[in-house]
Structure formats: C-alpha cells, structure tokens
Amino acid sequence: MWVEIICGLVIYRLFRRFFYDDDILEVETSDSNALFAVANRLEKLYGGKAYVGLRIPDPDTGSRQTIDLVLVTKREAVVISVKNLSGIVSVSGDGSWVCEHEGRHRAERYPDPIVEVKKQASVLESYLEQRGVERGVALPEGCFSYKVILSNPKFRTIYPDSFPSEVITYDKWAQLKPEPKSLFSGWIKGAFSGGKKDMQESIHQTLNFVLGTAPMWDRLEFKGNKYVLGEFLEFKGKQEDTMALRNIKRSKVSHLVIQKTSMFGLAPSKLQVLYFPRDYRSEGTSSSESKEITVRSSTEVVFQPENSSKVRKFKLSSIVSMMLSA
After folding, report:
1. Nearest alpha-carbon partner for 245 in 291, 285, 279
2. Spatial separation of the C-alpha atoms in residues 43 and 208, rounded to whole Å
3. CA-based nearest residue to 229, from 318, 283, 303
4. 195-249 confidence digits (pLDDT tens)
5. Which pLDDT score is estimated for 18?
6. Could you report the average pLDDT of every consecutive run of 10 residues in the chain (326 residues)?
7. I need a labelling partner for 75 at 20 to 30 A (CA). Which of 65, 177, 184, 266 fits?
8. What's the Cα-to-Cα distance from 246 to each of 31, 154, 253, rounded to whole Å?
9. DSSP collapsed to 3 states, the chain
10. What pLDDT, on a 0 to 100 scale, did the predictor assign at position 118?
11. Please, which residues have CB within 8 angstroms of residue 229's CB and are 6 or more apart in sequence?
12. What's the pLDDT at 106?
C-alpha cells in the first residue's frame, strides 16, 4: 500500500513539474489575453497599430499610469480600457459599476471606468506633448478619444441604455464590422473613426514612433496565445545557464524567442534561446541579427505579474517569447 502511495506522489510531482504553469496561467493570463484579443481584432477591423500595456509617467502623482491599449489608425488615436467582466453589470448613481458574478453571493463594485480612461487619455496627451506631438498643432483636433470595451461574452446587463456612449458593451463589440469606405451609421458611427479625416503621414509616423518607444509592461507569451504582462526580474537555474543568460538585460535586449528541440515527443532537456539586441533608432525593436544561447529546460523566469503582489516563476520551456521594455 505504501508503495502505491509513494508512486502516486512521485507521478503527481512529475506531472506538476511539467504542467504546473498551466494552472497559474488560467488565472493570470485571462485579463491579458482579453487585451491582446481586443487589440488583434481592432487591428483587423480598422487597420493601424494597437499598443498594449503602456506605462505612461503621470506628472501629477509621480507614478506611472497603466493604459490597456492605444489604437492608432490613419484617422485617430483611441485610448481603450478593456473590462473583462462576466456577470450582470449595472451602473450606480455615482457612476461606479456593480458586477454580480454568477455563483457568487457578493457583488463587486468597480470605480467609474469612464473617469479612469479619461484620466489615462489626459496623461497620455501630456506625454505626447512632451515628446513633440501637441494636440491642435501636430495632432489635429477631434482625432484623440477614449473608449471602454466590454469584451467578455459572459457580460450581461439589464439596462444597456444606462451606459455612457463611450462604452462598447459586448453585444455592440460582437457586431463591429470592418470600416466601409462610406461613413458608419447608427451607433457604429461614433465607435471608431467615423467621419474623421486622415492625419498627415508625418504626424502618423511620429505618433507611432513615440508610442512604439514609450514605457510599457514586459510581456511573456505562452503556447496557445496566452500572455502575462508585468516585470521581468531575473533568470533562475544552474549557474552555468544563468551565466550564459547574463547578457539578456532590458537595456541591451528587446525580445527573445524560445525554441524547443525534442525527440519522439519527449520534453527537451535543452532549449535554444534566440535574443535580439535592442536598436534605439527604431520603434523599440531590433534590426540586428539574433544571437543564440543553449540552456537547460529547467531554467526559470522570475516575473512580477501586473496587479499581483506575488512574484512568479515560469519554466523557460513553457514560454514562447518574451518582450522587454527599455
């Protein structure tokens, strides 16, 4: 009997050793996955570029203001807050939102998202002015706005008309279609880009450059299009491996890609890490050729997820790529 118990514990620990990250990811990637899903869909619908996970300096508080994403098209720049809320959501008299989650007895209250995203837009506007993109001069009037998108299909509301016009509920989000050459009609007209003229090409390029080189969260990408935003801290593992990875610092490297080699479907014992030197002349990416390091698959990435008080360790073998902010 004791033999069976010990064997069972060994098998369980081995299973956890290779698959424990999945348990953490289900919880920690849900909101980040929603951000990237919204960003990808907006790029397909309206073109342009979506910048995810910006951390813009706020001169009023001396801290950094996190912005979910900014969509830049030929016509406008939109600051977007993505709310991954599931359950019945209502708007209180003070503007705060109340969400009654399914299976929970206690409702959660959230600060007014419109006030939050308006503040984020104001901070970003000040940052753009500091970097030479001034509203009304470089940035045309009317091409800078903000929205709140409720992207979770489990979102429900009894009073849809109680939400401000800046809010795109899930039903409206699901109905969004690629922008036609003619103007939008109905509520879609004011959603994105309706009736606005194109920016000058030089302004558009400057705006993309500024946002492409702006501070943002580091990003881990896992298999299955799962993401975690936060701050990369260090590598953990055998001294030989950590020494080989010592040159991977945010000041020198923009991103890295993990390549796995395995035989007969078995977990690889070694990993190839391709890292790309940072090129400060471009939009935060590198035009240089990649460099390669080989390390053990047991090597771990120590990472501080956004909005979490706990530092996490992720196996390098579970990571597809990592983007580092300068």
Report:
1. 291
2. 14
3. 303
4. 566 677 888 888 999 999 999 999 999 988 899 999 999 999 999 999 999 999 9
5. 46
6. 55 49 53 94 93 94 94 92 94 92 83 96 93 70 88 92 93 83 40 63 87 94 93 96 93 90 62 88 60 93 93 94 92
7. 65
8. 31, 44, 11
9. CHHHHHHHHHHHHHHHHHHHHHHHHHHHCHHHHHHHHHHHHHHHHHCCEEEEEEEEEECCCCEEEEEEEEEECCCCEEEEEEECCCEEEEECCCCCEEEECCCCCCCEEECCHHHHHHHHHHHHHHHHHHCCCCECCCECCCCEEEEEEECCCCEECCCHHHCCCCEECHHHHHHCCCCCCCCCCHHHHHCCCCCCCCCCHHHHHHHHHHHHCCCECEEEEECCCEEEEEEEEEEECCHHHHHHCCCCCCCCEEEEEEEECCCCCCCCCEEEEEEEECCCCCCCCCCCCCEEEEEECCCEEEEEECCCCCCEEEEHHHEEEEECCC
10. 96
11. 32, 35, 52, 53, 217, 218, 219, 305, 306
12. 85
Which residues sit opposite 25 in a β-bridge? none
Report the Cα 146 to chain-centroid distance in Å: 17
Query: Cβ distance 269 to 316 under 8 Å?
Result: no
Cα 188–chain centre separation:
25
Name residue, tokens 């690629």: 178
Q: Is the dihedral of CA 45, 50, 52, 56 positive or negative?
A: negative
pTM value is 0.82
Q: In angstroms, rounded to a whole number, what is the distance separating the alpha carbons of residues 317 and 272? A: 10
Cβ-based neighbours of 16, under 8 Å, separated by 6 or more: none
Q: Give the closest residue to 297 by CA, choosing from 322, 313, 316, 312.
A: 316
